[in-house]
Amino acid sequence: MTSHRRAWITGSAAAALGVAIAPGIRLIEVAQARTSGEAASAKVRWGLLIDTSKCDSGCDACVKACSDENGLQSAIEDRQRPQWIRKVMLTEVKTGRQASAPMMCQHCAEPPCVDVCPTGASFKRADGIVLVDRHACIGCRYCMMACPYKARSFVHEPLANQRAQVPRGQGCVESCTLCVHRVDRGEQPACVEACAAAGRGAILFGDLNDANSEIARRVRALATQPLRADLGLDPGVRYQGL
Amino acid sequence: MSASFTAAAPSEVGAAPPAAPPTLPSPADEVRRFWAVAAFGALLVAIGLGAAHFMETHGHAVTGMSNQIVWGLPHVFAIFMIVAASGVLNVASVGSVFGQTVYKARAPLSGLLSLALLGGGLFVLMLDLGRPDRIVVAATHYNFKSVFAWNVFLYSGLFAIVAVYLWTLMERRMNRYAPAAGLAAFIWRFVLTTGTGSIFAFLVARQAYASALLAPMFIVLSFAWGLAVFLIVQSAMYAWNGLALPVAIQRRMTRLLGIFVAAAAYMVLVYHGTQLYATKLHGFERFLLLDGGVYPLLFWVGYVGLGTLWPLTLLLAPSPLGVRGTVLAAALVVLGGFAFLYAFIVGGQAWPLDIFSGYTASSTFMDGQVDAYTPRLPEWLLGLGGLGLAFLVTAVGVRVLRFMPQDDFARFDLAAGQPVATTGTTAARKG
After folding, report:
1. What is the pLDDT of residues A93-149, one digit of tens each?
2. Which of A61, B258, B296, B346 has a 20 to 30 A CA-CA distance from B12?
3. CB distance from A196 to chain B under 8 Å?
4. What is the pLDDT of residues A181-234, one digit of tens each?
5. pTM here?
């Protein structure tokens, strides 16, 4: 092989490689064009307070509202179906007392899912909302292994009829976004609205950092608790009556 | 797979009577056999790729995995191969770092197997991702707090270090750097398996995994699994060439495997001992070791019985089976390794998380329930594809370069009064 021909082959191979990976690199640039915390303020810490005494075990208005809002309808079996929010039926072991409560991403201040994510797809906004960047998630599911609340779902099936404001992706991990698209518009998460509309008012949404907010006053006045407090993750969701 | 050796030679050390020389295939037959072997490996790889394509097209809904058991059979295959890839390098380390001549001659094959197993493991791991097409994202975006991100560097680093190590072993001018490269590989593989164990050890929320013992436990398991794979491949290669492994070497490696298997069992015992010490983990341990159905069965019958006790009797007690006993024991250790990992990885996720302390829980999301997982065909085929890739790389590598231990051949040929023309010239003996 002449040196001229060798140089030509090397050049062609380099050009082919460049063409192959350039679109991917371009996509990464696009995905990074707006940093995750840019629009959110660290002065705010969005959170939920769930009053289990008001939660009706026969009511699933919050689950339905979440499904409608985020386009989560699916026909596959429960164990594979994405569930951003679920109703958990609870029985106290010692007393037999029964309760129910909605369970969703707890939007931890120290989220283990963010710690373990290899690509940084799992991230926390400045206002405490924990999200998944759908462009950077490779579907490794390590965040699902790490989440102590089993709050994340993997999209096991091809998707259709997605909501424009809630992009999802097959093969990616997802979870409750605290209806970030609504919150950024100054509205409440869909589950909170639905719970109030159903006459329960078991879920209270607000800014935990604002001392005058209803949620901050209630958290200050009542005995509430985070789940798995032993892990010290400082969740943004607190429970009352457990 | 050179066919230049003409007869099985008895060991100069062993007392066994000389076996009748097997009939070796002609060079043309040998070439045909190589292509058949390579085609078989390529077919397995193609089947694995097909399974991955099917999973990507239809989603992981076609697997048995769920939102509770998020890592299934593919991870059992992948982690076995990645752990064994580290362990198989031990053979080279015993030679290069600890100066044992018998093992030095085996360093090239050890390095090749390490690359092959790591490639096979990563093949499965990557193709089981929800978005395998985004490998470029994984390679360009790092969250350095993530153990997975560390592992990306550890895997690519092992490829590079072992490749350089093999170069120093096989290129005469580079031989003087072999001890340094061997030491680097030795250290790197320790770090790599620490990383593999830490993938689980850092999962503080899960009853099965949050233990600092997992990193050293995986290192010791890697010794046993890696040497077992090495012994199986070495025996297959010798048989291919119509050669018999010298009895003294076989005995040494057999004893070493016995020690590794016993040490691994000790680490597993200590791990479960520490788990059982914590009252809050009693429910999980009872599930995994006693009443969890398939998981206790795999642990006790698969790992403890078939994968530990039976091989130990074959390896440490005098066996009438000779080399066949060693190979049988090694195969059992590999099977036991798969059984152990299945119980550890899948069983550890099947058990529900304890989210609401003091309450029993139930929901449509399997809260409070043991998730029933049955691996489906695409998962098996993807795993077999990974094994196929490791097999193919090994077969082709041995064919095109001199990875087989050469010193023994030379000695046999001299003992048998035959010329040594094609043997003993490799740099492998200098590793």
Report:
1. 999 999 999 999 999 999 999 999 999 999 999 999 999 999 999 999 999 999 999
2. B258
3. no
4. 999 999 999 999 999 999 999 999 999 999 999 999 999 999 999 999 999 999
5. 0.87
Q: Which residues of B touch A94 (CB under 8 A)?
A: 358
Q: A176 CB near a chain B CB, below 8 Å?
A: no
Q: For A175-195, what is each residue's pLDDT tens digit?
A: 999 999 999 999 999 999 999
Size of interface A-B (CB pairs under 8 A): 185
Q: Which residue of A has its CA nearest to B147?
A: A116
Q: Looking at beta carbons, which residues of chain A come within 8 Å of B72?
A: none
Report yes or no: A4 at the B interface, CB cutoff 8 Å.
no
Whether ipTM > 0.95 holds is no
Residue ranges of chain B with pLDDT lower than 50?
A: 1-16, 412-431
Containing A131, the helix (H) or strand (E) segment is: strand A130-132
Burial class (CB in 10 A: 0-12, 13-18, 19+), A152: buried
Q: Determine, for residues B149 and A138 on separate chains, whether the beta-carbon distance falls below 8 Å.
A: no
Q: Nearest residue on chain A to B207, judged by CA atoms?
A: A148
Q: Which chain B residue shows the shortest CA-CA distance from A118?
A: B149
Q: In A, which residues are within 8 Å of B147 by CB distance?
A: 116
